[in-house]
Design a protein that fits this description.
Shape: elongated
Number of strands: 20
Radius of gyration: 23 Å
Distance between the termini: 37 Å
Number of helices: 5
Order of helices and strands: HHEEEEEEEHEEHEEEEEEEEEEHE
Structural class: mainly beta
Largest sheet: 16 strands, antiparallel
């Protein structure tokens, strides 16, 4: 996949974040007709079955269970790295190897308000990515700064799902996070240096218990830099086994429900990360004759933009009534791992990196509402 083709892809549509997907998962499909009367609602036009109000939502029958607490670990084997300087005075880092690239993710989601006509979900998350290189990049600015140093993201978000009637629904999410190599005792850089904000909104239609879709936008750092992207959600269950869950074109996943306790997935996803890196040694921009570039402040920090495409297979299985496990394997294509000047106003690209494609694997545990509790509430997974 060329860089040009991926840029074209991003102009067509954007990627909804993980928080949006999990916000959808919190809204389980009600048995039709509902097992118990629903409270009165101010939204007009909702269909009534046996005097019970029906409200639309983004989820469809057959989707996986709601996720309350998620712990995930992902690891990649060694792969080749080539980094090319984009400005005069910097060196290249050719034919090196990353001996470690691992990610740990911990996320939690709480339904702060759960009514048929309004759902509010609060989420907290912590993610950490680590690298190790060989040979040791003791004289290379970027990799010397992130060697054995965690790149972290600590985030809080609110997702709101507002059904209008039995067909139409709204979904919105706002998220704030600290992203980079920060430490809580860091004195030279403040919270504002690492802070990131993103927002998403979508309007959708629930055509049946098995089909829901919607269109909207995402504003954030999904593809590296802060941008506005369109988004399309398409959730459909074709029969008792097969379905599709898509946030086209950035994520498309086929689903196979082998049983109520086991689900298989296959597809691809685009993931983006944006980190602020504090350099261990000041980076000076110099002319070919060795003199400092006029009008350029020496760099103490860099903005690292990482974008990757993953082709993946995933298996989720119920371990206990409230605990599920997941295993995922796939192949990662790295589109960008580039460093930009965030000190000077031009935001010039400083280093252009290429990572070789590599397989990856991950393990995950997540807590769900117990099956008996959902059955008593008249909710079907």
């Amino acid at each position: 996949m060329s860089r040009f083709s991926l840029r074209t892809l991003t102009l067509m549509s954007g990627l909804w974040g993980a928080g949006t997907l999990l916000a959808q998962a919190q809204v389980q499909e009600r048995v039709y007709p509902p097992a118990a009367p629903l409270p009165a609602d101010s939204a007009a036009g909702g269909k009534r079955l046996n005097d019970k109000q029906i409200f639309a939502n983004p989820s469809v029958l057959g989707m996986g269970p709601s996720k309350g607490l998620i712990v995930r670990y992902e690891r990649m084997p060694r792969f080749r790295i080539d980094s090319k300087a984009q400005v005069v005075g910097l060196a290249n880092y050719d034919d090196a190897r990353a001996t470690k690239n691992a990610r740990l993710s911990i996320k939690g989601y709480i339904p702060a308000w759960n009514r048929p006509h309004l759902k509010v979900i609060v989420g907290l998350s912590y993610e950490r990515e680590e690298f190790q290189f060989t040979p040791k990049p003791t004289e290379y600015e970027l990799y010397n700064s992130i060697e054995d140093k965690g790149l972290k993201s600590t985030a809080a978000q609110i997702a709101i799902i507002r059904p209008v009637d039995d067909v139409h629904w709204y979904l919105a999410r706002i998220k704030g996070e600290l992203s980079g190599d920060y430490t809580y005792t860091e004195g030279s850089m403040g919270v504002n240096d690492y802070f990131r904000f993103s927002a998403e909104a979508i309007y959708g239609w629930k055509r049946s218990p098995n089909f829901s879709w919607g269109v909207g936008f995402q504003y954030g750092y999904t593809f590296g830099r802060l941008s506005l992207y369109p988004a399309l959600i398409y959730n459909r269950t074709f029969n008792s086994h097969w379905g599709i869950e898509a946030l086209a074109p950035a994520r498309i996943t086929m689903r196979y429900n082998s049983s109520d306790k086991s689900i298989f997935y296959a597809g691809y996803t685009v993931d983006g990360y944006n980190y602020i890196i504090k350099l261990r040694d000041e980076l000076e921009r110099r002319n070919p004759d060795g003199s400092l570039v006029s009008g350029k402040t020496p760099l103490r920090t860099l903005e690292l933009r990482e974008t990757e495409v993953k082709f993946r297979g995933r298996w989720e299985h119920e371990i206990l009534s409230f605990l599920w496990g997941a295993a995922e394997v796939g192949y990662r294509y790295n589109y960008a791992f580039d460093a930009f000047d965030r000190t000077n106003a031009d935001r010039e690209k400083i280093i252009d990196s290429k990572f070789a494609g590599a397989p990856y694997a991950s393990l995950e545990l997540f807590i769900t509402p117990p099956r008996k509790l959902l059955e008593k509430a008249g909710v079907r997974r």
